[in-house]
Amino acid sequence: GELLAATSKSDEALESFELALKILEANKRHDTLTAEKLRTQIAEILKDKHRYTEALALLQRTLESKKRLAGANDPSVAVSMSSIAELHLRQKQPRKALPLLEDALKIMENARGPQHPQVARILTTLGAAYMHINRYDESLRLYERAREIKETLLGSNHIAVALVLYNLAVTYQRQGQTQRALDLYARALQIREDKYGKRSTQLVQILNNIGILLRTAGRSKEALASIERALHIVERRKGKQHIDLVVLLSDMGETYSKMKSYRQALVYYQRALRILERKYGKESAKLMSTLDSIGHVHEESDDLEKALPVYQRKQRIAEASGDELLIATSLITLAACTLSLEQTTEAMPLFQRAYEIRRARLGEADAQTEEAKQWVTDCQEIIDEEAEFADDPDYDMDDDDDDDDDYDDDDDDDLDDDDDDY
Question: Distance of CA 135 to CAs 173, 174, 181, 188, Å?
Fold first, then answer.
C-alpha cells in the first residue's frame, strides 16, 4: 500500500490499506498502533478524494484508540485532533475545528514545550481557523508565533517558513493591507523559487494571489504578468486542458475586464468554459460562475443581446440543479438583463419567482429577500409608467401633427445630408 501510494496509485493503495485493516480487525487487533496507522493512511487518501465523511469517521476512531492506548494527554492524541480539525476546515467548518485545535495546542505545549515544531504546525492550523471566521487579529498573532518558532528552529529561508509567510499574506490581504501582503508573498515566493525552481507548480498559488492583489490595487498590467506566469507554468506542467487552468483563466478574464479590454476578457473566459465543459459536461452547475462572468462582460460592453442567451443557459442549468437559492439568484441576473432590454413584462415574473423562493427559504426580513422584493417594486414602477404613457392621450410617439409644414426646404440652416459631422 505504501509503495502504491508513493507512486500516486491511490486507488490501488486504498484497496491494499483497507484489506490490511480488515485482516487486523478480523483478528481483533483494531486497537493496535498498526491499525491506527492504517486508518490514518486510508483517511489521507479519502481526504484527497473529497470523501470527507468517510475520512472523518476513520480519524475519529483513531483518536479514540489513541486515547485508550496512550492516554488523553499524549502528543499523539494532539496530532489526531489536529488532523480532524484540518478535515473540518476542508469542509468549511472552522467552528468545529477551533475547540479541537485549542485542546491539541495545550496538550502539545505541555508535552513538548512551547517551541516544538508540532506546536508550530498546530498554531498554523489554528490561525487558519480564526482567519476563516474573520478574527484576523487572533489569526495574525498565531501565525506570527508559528513563524518565530520555525525561523528559530529551521532558519528564515526554510521552505516551512514560506507556508507561514503565505498564510500571513492571505490574512493581510483579507484585511485590505495590500502592501504588507505583497511583501510577504514576495518573501514566500523567493523561498519557493530557491527550493523548487522558477517553473514549479509550487509557485502558482502565490503568483495568482499576487496578481489578484495587484489588480485590486489598480496595477492591472503587473497583475496580468503575475497571473500569466502562473498560467504558463500550469500549461507546461499539466497541459493546456487541465482543470487547474480554470481559476487562472478566469482571473485573467477578470483583469482584462477591469481594464475594459472586453474582447480579451472573453477569450480567457470562453477558454475556461471549454475546459469545464470537457471535464464536467455542458449542463454541469460548475459552469455557472464562468457563464455569469461571460454574461457580465457582454453587459459591460453594452451587448445585452449576447448576454441574454448566456444568462438563459445559466438559468437552465440552475433549474436542473434543484438548488432553489441558486435558482433565485440566477433568476434575478436573467431578469435584470431582460429588464435592461426593456422587456419589462417578461422580467416581472422572473423577479416575482425569485422573491417568492427567497421569502419561503430565507424569510421576509433577510437581505436577499429584500433585494428581490426591491427588484419587483422597481419593475412594477416601470410597468406602471409605461401603462400611464400608453393611456395618456397627449403622449404619442408617432405624432402626426404637421409641425414640419412651416419648415422651409430652402432655408440656409438646413442640415446637409453629406455633412462630415454626421
Answer: 13, 11, 17, 23
What pLDDT, on the 0 to 100 scale, is given for residue 156? 94
Higher pLDDT, 316 or 384: 316
Mean pLDDT of all residues belonging to the chain: 89
Instruction: Please state, in angstroms and rounded to a whole number, the distance separating the CA atoms of residues 86 and 143.
Output: 16
CA pair distance 74, 252, nearest whole angstrom: 49
Task: Reply yes or no on whether the pLDDT at 275 is more than 70.
Answer: yes
Q: How many CB atoms lie within 10 A of CB 90?
A: 14
Q: CA-to-CA distance for 227 and 249, rounded, in angstroms?
A: 9
In the predicted structure, residue 415 carries a pLDDT above the cut 60:
no
Instruction: Give the residue among 389, 298, 369, 376 at the shortest CA–CA distance from 339.
Output: 376
* 104-144 pLDDT tens trace: 999 999 999 999 999 999 999 999 999 999 999 999 999 99
DSSP for 335-392 reads: HHHHHHTT-HHHHHHHHHHHHHHHHHHH-TTSHHHHHHHHHHHHHHHHHHHHHHHHH-
Grid cell listed for 35: 491499525
Residue 74: DSSP 8-state: S
Q: Pick the residue with more confidence: 346 or 421?
A: 346
State the pLDDT at residue 52: 86
Dihedral over Cα of 371, 373, 375, 381: its sign:
negative
Angle between helices 324-340 and 367-391 (to 10 degrees): 30
With CA atoms as reference, report the closest residue to 91 among 64, 43, 142, 56. Answer: 56
Q: Could you report how far apart the first and last alpha carbons of the chain are, in Å?
A: 78
Q: Which of 86, 82, 89 is nearest to 103 (CA)?
A: 82
Amino acid, single-letter form, for residue 343: Q
Q: Cα–Cα distance between 311 and 123 in angstroms, integer?
A: 44
DSSP 39-67: HHHHHHHHHHTT-HHHHHHHHHHHHHHHH
**In 3-state terms, the chain is what percent helix, strand and coil (to 5)?**
80, 0, 20
DSSP state of 29: -
